[in-house]
Amino acid sequence: MTDASYKELLKRVQSKTQMQRIDDDRFKVPKAEIFFEGNTTVLKNFDKIADMINRDQDHVMKFLLGSVGTAGEIDGGRAVFQGKIPPKTLQDRLIEYIDTYVICTECKRPDTHLLKKERTIVIRCDACGAFRSVGSMKKKKTVTPSEALKEGEIIDVTIKDIGKRGDGVAFVDKYIVYVSGAIKGSTVKVKIEKISGTVAFARLVV
Question: Which domains are present in the chain?
Answer without folding.
Answer: 34-111 (3.30.70.3150), 154-204 (2.40.50.140)
